[in-house]
Amino acid sequence: xxxxxxxxxxxxxxxxxxxAASLTVPAFAAQLEPAKAAFKAPTANIVGGTxxxxxxxxxxARMRTPAPAPQTGFYTCGATLLSPDILLTAQHCLSxxxxxxxxFIGHVDWKQSQTExxxxxxxxxxxxxxxxxxxxxxxxxxxxxxxxxFPLLPVDASNDATGTYKAxxxxxxxxxxxxxxxxxxxxxxxxxxxxxxxSYTKVELCAGDWDKGGVDTCQGDSGxxxxxxxxxxxxxxxxxSWGIGCGKKALPGHYAKVSAFLKEIKAAIAELGGKxxxxxxxxxxxAPTTPAxxxxxxxxxxxxPTPTIPVPSPSTPDxxxxxxxxxxPADPTRPADGPGPDRTDEPxxxxxx
Length: 353
Description:
This protein is mainly β.
């Protein structure tokens, strides 16, 4: 039975409807996390992958939304920072219509990002129709993330269904893992042909080892990117959406096809007032440059002036005590940066599929 890929919650309770489209809720849905019914199984992580290196994916985001009352805690998903204030994620991650979204961005260890106050929030978002129809969503952050390195978007489907992809996420490392990961992981996924992908190839890509299994995204990776490196640049071709189990042979993961919704994604970014994402045609944003200091050269033949060194007057001694620093101390009344004590957002029992 299919489940969305790939989302994690704190508690196990009843079902709610999924966002923009009318979908049939499978019989097992009541066993899943609240409001993630048909397409939100508990969060999981990359299957068969390895730990990601710090700095390689600085735009990777671990996103969470508060569970609807009366539940407590959070649902967690992945997301991609496409521009300083725009996240791309999955529609099913926002199907409960949360009043705000939180995202940790900056480190492979999301708890380090939390400790350093690298928590960004957003209250405005636009969503696609949902899994098997267009499982994408765009979130506008309330403040810009101070970086200039972002993945590009495709301009067409020419790079979609061939070669090997890269998937990343903080989800489970197996369908029986007790909790999601603290550190970002990555995995190489072979493209699966359209004939094996199923009935949704106009709006989805499929990836995984068809013959052997063992590599996949899993619960908790929902909303994260399916990537390919093209001409030295990371290009996001897909958004992690759903699958049947994790890492099973002949059952690949399914990913919303970004090229099929490029126009809608760009329009959503514009409507939210976000900074535009760049495409392969645009190329990466130019690196910021620091202007070189300008100095004036003396006119040839003109002697350089002799610098005058001021001498303090004996009648006006320096009254600054010797133990006072040259820069002012931090304001002692300013509260410490960052969120409060970590609140767990992991399930208390193994996820159910």
